[in-house]
Structure formats: structure tokens, C-alpha cells
Amino acid sequence: MGGFLYTIQNRIVCWGEMVQILEKELGLPAHLNKQPSQPGDVPQTYADVSKAHRLLGYMPRTPFEEGIKKFMNWHRGEGHDEAINCSTDL
Predict the structure, then answer these.
(1) Would you say the pTM of this structure is higher than 0.70?
(2) pLDDT tens sequence across 42-51
(3) InterPro entries from the entry (predicted)?
(4) Closest CA to 89 of 27, 35, 44
């Protein structure tokens, strides 16, 4: 899968890993429509939370996969037992 990287909770998560986690938790296969990179696309993103840590004591503690699981448990607990219907290609 694609080579884009995301930094989540001080850990790099590859785009392909992100898609696999979402597929698993949503219970749906991703329908990928790969396109060439567009002007302005960046190969890696990184959120610098040092200011939030310094001013607010904020420190991310939930790994990406665990956060997605928690979100899906909350979503289903809100009465949305069906899988999320995403009609657009990723």
C-alpha cells in the first residue's frame, strides 16, 4: 500500500497499517482508489504537541489502534450497531 506515514502518539503509523486497522474495526474492506501524489501532498506528517504539553500538561497516551477500538465501542453503544457505511473510495 501507499508509503505515507503519520505520527500518532509519538509512533509512526504507515498509511497501509492505518487502513488495515480501520478495516478490522469497521468490519468492512477498504475500496482503495490509488491515485498519483498530488501537488502539496506530503510523505509524512507530524503533530508537535510540545506546546500543549508545556501549557496544559497534555500527553497523548492512547495508541491509534486502541483509540479506534474505543471509538467503535462508543459508536456501537450509541445505538449504531451496523457497520459504518462509507460510500466513497479511500
Answers:
(1) no
(2) 887 777 888 8
(3) NAD(P)-bd_dom_sf (IPR036291)
(4) 35
Position 2 pLDDT exceeds 80: no
Cβ count near 31 (within 10 Å): 10
Among candidates 20, 28, 1, which has minimal Cα distance to 65? 20
Render pLDDT for 37-89 as a digit per residue (tens, 0 to 9): 889 988 877 778 888 888 988 888 888 888 889 988 888 887 766 555 555 44
| Residue 18: count of CB within 10 angstroms of its CB | 21
Residue spans of the domains in the chain: they are: 5-31+42-77
* Measured distance CA(38)–CA(54) in Å, rounded: 35
Question: If we measure between CA atoms, which residue out of 33, 37, 12, 27 comes closest to residue 68?
Answer: 27
